[in-house]
Design goal:
The protein is α/β, with parallel strands linked by helices and 387 residues long. The chain contains 15 helices and 15 strands. Helix content is 42%, strand content 17%.
Length: 387
Amino acid sequence: MTEKYTKAHPISFPPPENGDVDMLVIAAEHSGDQNAALGVRELQSLQPGYRICALGGPALKESGVQLLIDLTKDSAIGFQAIYNWKFYLKLIAEVVRWVTEHRPKVVCFVDSSGLNLRIAKALFSHGLITKAGGPTKAIYYIGPQIWASRAYRRFSMAKYIDELAVIFPFDLDCYSDTDLSVRFVGHPFVNGNETPLVDYDPTGPILLLPGSRKSAVSYIFPLLLEGYRRYLKGNNDREAVVVYPGEDVRRVIERTMHTPYLLVPSGKRVVASAVLTSSGTMSLRCALAGVPGAIVYRTHPVTYLLGRLLVKVPYIGIANFLLGETMYPEYIQGEAAPSKLANQLYSSIHESERIAKVRMQAERLRTLLSIPSQGSVGEWFAENLIK
C-alpha cells in the first residue's frame, strides 16, 4: 500500500459514488475492519439506504460500502509504524480534504487509536467535527484499551469524540471522569447473530495464528511453525492449519515453507484441537471456543521495550485478562522457545485435566461477555445517523 502512494503519486480518495455520503468509517486493521463490517450489515438490515464510504479492508468492502482505500494491507504497530510516518501524514491530510469537500453526517473511527485520534485531532483543528463547531459528528466504535495503557487517552477521546461504543462492560467506568457519552453495545463474538469461526474438536488439527500485521507476523510465525515441527517429532498425529487475514500476510507466511500446513483465509470456519496464537483478536475466538493452547508474542526489541513501559496489565492475552487467571500460557520475546511451544501443544491435546479446565474457563468467559448490552452497534449507528 505505502509503495503505491509515493511523492509522485499522492494519496487521493475518489468522491462518493452516489454524490453524497452519510457516514465515513475508518478502520485501519483487520479486526476493526471485520467488526465494523458486522455493524454496517446490521445497520443496513435495520435501515437500508444509507450511503457509506470507508477506509478499511475487504470485510467492509464485502458489506457493500464504497471502499476508498484498503488500510489493512500494511498495518503496523509501535516502532515499525515510524517507518511509514510520511504515508500517515499524507493519509491524515487527505482525510481532512475529503471530509471538507464531501461533508459526511458522521465519521466513525474503529479501534486503532494511534492513527484515529490523530485524524480526529486534525478534523477538530480544521473545525470540521461537531465539538469544533463543524457539521460532522465524530463517533468511535471499540475505543482504546485505556485500562491496559495510556489512560490519559480518555481525555483526547472526550475532547474530539461525540459518542463512544464499547465492547467490554468494564470500559464504561474508564470514562466516568469525562463528559464523553459511552454505551456498551456488547461484544461481537457473543452476538446472537455471529457465527463462531472457531470450534473445538479433540481430533481436529492444530491452529497456528500468527496475527494480522505483517511486521508482527514476520517475527511470530517462524516460532509457531518451529514449535509445531518439534511437536511432530514425537507425535505425528496432527495437521496444521494457518489462518491468514489478507494476501499481504499470506505472502509473509509463505516465505517459511519448510513444514507443510494448510492455509485458510480468515472468515472461514475452522475446527481445532489446540492452538498457538498471537495475542490478537483470534485468540479470544479460540478461548470462547474452548480450544487449549498458548499465546506467543515477539516483536522488534525497541517496540517491546516501549510496550513494557506503557502497558500496565499482568496479561497480554485478552482472555487471561478478563478471567484474571491463565487460560493461555504466554511466551513473550526470549521466552518463546519452540521446545516450550511443543510441550504446550502436547499438554493441550493429551492432558484431559487441562482440556476440561479450558472448557470451564471458556464458559466463564462467555458469561462475562454476555451481560445485557445497551443496544446493538447497528442500532447505535442508526441513532447517530438520525440525530
